[in-house]
């Protein structure tokens, strides 16, 4: 069963939008009628994906950005509003992994890197999205956490710290902005078939094999399944949903 939405006249922004879950979500927003800003550290990829949407008669723009850099994040939001006039929805999705490491051996460099993108990068964009949305008195933001924001796993301390942080950021901001007409939620994807996970399956095969045994649904998730959850959270169908951390993980966190 395919669920459809009508976001005609609305504007969506997606970070990490040139591949994986971000790209699937950007495409879904566009197919639902929204104008889309594809934000990615790879400017050429962001622009190429935006051009594909434009060729399919959608409205889109590709913007290059280091999400951890607040000035660049602010400029990306400003560029989106300058192009399309407003901002109604955002999927703050950009994220990275670092190699699995014993907690006693994890480097400060890896800790700072993963938190700069996964936590600070969401904070930078949410901050500047909210500046626009509080003026409008409306909007919906979905921040990308992870099943790693809900549970702990060995050798993932820094990554899981970043993803737990996203949930705390989301819940606090959600309480603050719900009375102002802006809904903020998080999703917690499980193991999704994306380029990042493909690399992990190749380089960390034994660990990932064990991980997949805990996936009750018995398969990887699809980027399109994440997109569907994001669009629902941004839609009128989720109008009473505020501050949740929604697992989209094939049942992993039910263990």
Automatic annotation (TrEMBL):
The keyword Magnesium does not apply. It comes from the Bacteria. Keywords: NAD, Oxidoreductase. Residues 10-190 form the Ketoreductase domain. InterPro entries: KR_dom (IPR057326), NAD(P)-bd_dom_sf (IPR036291), SDR_fam (IPR002347). One of its GO terms (molecular function) is oxidoreductase activity. The keyword NAD applies. Belongs to the short-chain dehydrogenases/reductases (SDR) family. NCBIfam families: PRK07231.1. This is Short-chain dehydrogenase/reductase family oxidoreductase.
């Amino acid at each position: 069963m395919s669920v459809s939405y009508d976001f005609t006249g609305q504007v969506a922004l997606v970070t990490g939008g040139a591949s994986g879950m971000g790209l699937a979500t950007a495409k879904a927003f566009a197919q639902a009628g929204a104008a889309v800003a594809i934000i990615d550290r790879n400017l050429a990829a962001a622009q190429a994906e935006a051009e594909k949407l434009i060729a399919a008669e959608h409205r889109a723009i590709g913007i290059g950005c280091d999400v951890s850099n607040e000035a660049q994040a602010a400029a990306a939001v400003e560029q989106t509003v300058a192009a399309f006039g407003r901002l109604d929805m955002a999927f703050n999705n950009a994220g990275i992994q670092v190699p699995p490491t014993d907690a006693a051996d994890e480097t400060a460099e890896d800790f700072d890197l993963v938190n700069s993108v996964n936590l600070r990068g969401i904070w930078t964009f949410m901050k500047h999205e909210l500046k626009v949305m509080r003026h409008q008195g409306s909007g919906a933001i979905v921040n990308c956490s992870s099943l790693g924001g809900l549970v702990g796993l060995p050798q993932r301390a820094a990554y899981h710290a970043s993803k737990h942080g996203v949930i705390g950021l989301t819940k606090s901001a959600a309480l603050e902005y719900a009375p102002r007409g802006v809904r903020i939620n998080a999703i917690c994807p499980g193991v999704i078939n994306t380029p990042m996970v493909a690399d992990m399956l190749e380089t960390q095969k034994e660990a990932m094999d064990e991980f997949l045994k805990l996936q009750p649904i018995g398969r990887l998730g699809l980027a399109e399944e994440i997109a569907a959850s994001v669009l629902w959270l941004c839609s009128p169908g989720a109008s009473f949903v505020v501050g949740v951390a929604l697992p989209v993980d094939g049942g992993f966190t039910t263990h």
